[in-house]
Amino acid sequence: MSAPNPFVKERLIAHRGASAHAPENTLAAMREAKRRGAEWVEIDVKLTRDQRPVIIHDDTVDRTTNGRGFVAGLTFEEIRKLDAGSWFAPEFADERIPAFTELLETVLEEDLSLQVELKPTAGDDWETAEIACIELKRLWPEERGRLFITSFSRVALARAAELLPDVPRAFAVVVPPRDPVALLGAVNCQILHCTSDLLDAEALARLDASGIEFATATIDDPAEARRLIDAGVQTILSNVADLRP
Predict the structure, then answer these.
(1) Are 40 and 113 in contact (CB under 8 A)?
(2) What SS3 class is residue 45?
(3) Does the model's pTM come out above 0.85?
(4) What is the number of helices (H) and of strands (E) in the chain?
(5) Percent of the chain with pLDDT over 70
(6) What are the C-alpha distances in Å from 196 to residues 40, 56, 57, 160, 213?
(7) Separation between Cα atoms, residue 64 and residue 50, nearest integer Å
(8) Residue 118 near residue 158 (C-beta atoms within 8 A)
(9) What's the pLDDT band for 2 if we cut at 50, 70, 90?
């Protein structure tokens, strides 16, 4: 009894773009996702020290660039000087951490649908949502749709609901809730996203029976993706942009 009319009607969202094929959360990863046939991409938004929204997952730049330090402790100009591609492969040496503005422009140019994950550094939840949503209001055509916002942060989601009330929201969790309908009501969201770690058969059955729209991350094996979809998951987030569950 999964959601009869889910907002995301595709089976797959390319996680941080085509991140198995290009450095995650870069413009190259978005273009590669499109090239490989993905309809949806997911990205992460964080704020720099000078309150500029950029596309990166981790609290620090250490893993995915040649720099070190907290994103929230570096200015936009400092972050833009970093190499965000060489760690993945030499041919991506010129990639940079994208500004949110140029990411949105690229997604629109490539005619992709977009999941925006608000990924605040602990303490700037409100500001991350506010600044990202202002950019979305400015650049994303209201009539286009094909956009939703997600976060693990209730504070960020609450601010997103105030600024973009007509854009669907997904609450991200690690532990599958005992009462998913009540949880979504409490956080004023329409979709639930669960990491796959604790998504056992009992949890899958409970979520499926609830009738909510739910997705899981991150699944790169086609057989596992098919098993989860057969169990009621509507959407799989995958690093493999051309995964066909």
Answers:
(1) yes
(2) strand
(3) yes
(4) 8, 9
(5) 99
(6) 19, 21, 18, 25, 15
(7) 21
(8) no
(9) low
Residue in 183, 193, 200 with CA at minimum distance from that of residue 215: 193
pLDDT score of 119: 98
Which two tokens mark 11?
């089976």
**Domain locations in the chain as residue ranges:** 12-46+113-238
Q: Cα(65)–Cα(143) distance, rounded to whole angstroms?
A: 36
Q: What is the mean pLDDT of the chain?
A: 97
Residue 1 confidence (pLDDT) above 60: no
Give the count of beta carbons closer than 10 Å to the beta carbon of residue 163.
Answer: 15
Looking up tokens 């056992």, which residue turns up? 200
Tokens of 106: 């690229």
* 60's tokens: 């620090």
Question: Cis (ω within 30 of 0) for the bond into 101?
Answer: no
**pLDDT over 90 for what percent of the chain?**
97
Q: Which superfamily, per CATH, for 12-46+113-238?
A: Phosphatidylinositol (PI) phosphodiesterase (3.20.20.190)
pLDDT by residue (tens digit) across 174-210? 999 999 999 999 999 999 999 999 999 999 999 999 9
- For 57, the 3-state DSSP assignment is coil
Q: Do the Cβ atoms of 85 and 106 come closer than 8 Å?
A: no
The span from the CA of 134 to the CA of 110, in Å, is 22
